[in-house]
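Notebook B, p. 112. Complex prediction, attempt 2.
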Amino acid sequence: MAIVNLQNVTYKYPLTSSPALRDVNLQISEGEFVAVVGPNEAGKSTLCYTLAGFVPHFFKGELTGTVEVAGIESHTSTLNEWVMNVGLAFQNPFNQISGAKYTVFEEIAFGLENIGVPRDEMIGRVEAAMKLTDISDLADRSPYSLSGGQQQRVALTSILVMQPKILVLDEPTSQMDPIGTREVFGVIRKMAEQGMTVVLVEHKVEWIAQFADRVIALKDGQVLLEGTPGEVFTSPILEESGFGISRYTSVARKAQQIGLWKKEGLPVTLDEAADGFGSSLPKGERSGISAK
Amino acid sequence: MKIEISNLHFTYPTGVEALRGISLAIESGEQVAIVGQNGSGKTTLVKHLNGLLRPTSGEVRIGGWDTKSHSVAKLARRVGYVFQNPDEQLFSKNVGMEVAFGPRNMGLNGDQIQSLVQDALLMTELSDKTETNPYDLSATWRKMVALASVISMDTDIVIFDEPTTGQDAMNIARIANVIKTLRTRGKTVITITHDIDFCAENFTRVIALSQGKVLLDGKANEVLGQEEILAITYVEPPQLTRLGKRLGFTNTVRTQDEFLTELKRGKSEART
């Protein structure tokens, strides 16, 4: 059963002449972890806003086609109905933080307060969510005193605590340190395994390849490619169209041209690359390469 | 223009001790990347280089000037600083005026301003956007405007705070080009980055900070190969460095060329 169903969706922001999304068709199943990639201005954020109901309810503009998310249809609903189903983390965490709360703990409780969750339950849920994203030690800090990466963790936690059916994340790790990024990908993966549907906009190919089920490549508001991370990220179309690819793929492509990559298909992850290059290297003791 | 930092400590008014005894020297024309965990003090450190922050104790000298006794306006002639978020530094009506603002404030004449602006716009590929309001541009191009508005000041030292955040592959390549051009002109470039592959491909020296202290400082290959120590500050070696290690290469590799060289060497030596 598709929990997200977009059919022939075209959308134009007010006062603009060309559409930000063009004839997009997209089905996402419950519990699926879908990554959206593409160059800047491909329509990635607009797609996030559409899934979260901000398009058209907040941004207005001109939407045609069908947008159905968790059983609610865009044209016949209000934004209030959407927020209970879909959680959106903005690209810039600064835009997300309410400005009405003095501590991180209160900030994360903000959404729950607004929907009238009882105090005891609220405290428990906030504590659990903070533990999940490993920010318990920030509880008493002001959200504005945090570094960019810490703010992003707070923004993500304030969405997770709402336990939405669908989690829409617009570059949630852009300001995070490398291992922190991997950890957050792990948390998102766990959410998906627990049945949450995840749509993630990201540039970090290595982690998408390792954690996501499916990749959608957008360009100029259209779906250019769709498939497993392995299928999409090794497609030659992608590099030509200005998409980022992993260093494993690009170095293997070069090695292939000089006969040093013999496997069929190109690697996307470290494991695949190590496997492919390792098997083309002769076994045994050798100088230049130390024996394991 | 040499940067000398000695025993620098900084505590924010909130009581957060962000820098805890940093000493380092950066020579003229060096290309330095600063990496490290969120909250490790990277931004706090670079804000000391143009006087936005002053040491709680210790000393920062820029070409001999003690930042404690020179104004930010004065230091701005020596150190350019591109903020992490371009929206924090853009305010002019159009791109041309934005990029001219810095040199104009330095009291240069019209011709000099004009030539610096043209040069900065060319380097950042913005020449066709001079009349556009920065806020009518996409985030990608606003980033380039922020870069241009600092490059036009022609300072000896240029600092970029996370220049690749949220940028696509094409714009990251553009930014790498800007850094390359500055390098050929002998500028000192200091860049904070979490993009460790970008760091590997564009910088020769890497400083890793952890909890307000220098954890590692050295040649890029030496620092980026130290997987266990980097993990303390939540940094992982670049993709190709990790792959090289997995394949048992004796030398640490950073770039595609280095990787392929080691790969060929391993094969040919094994064959003989």
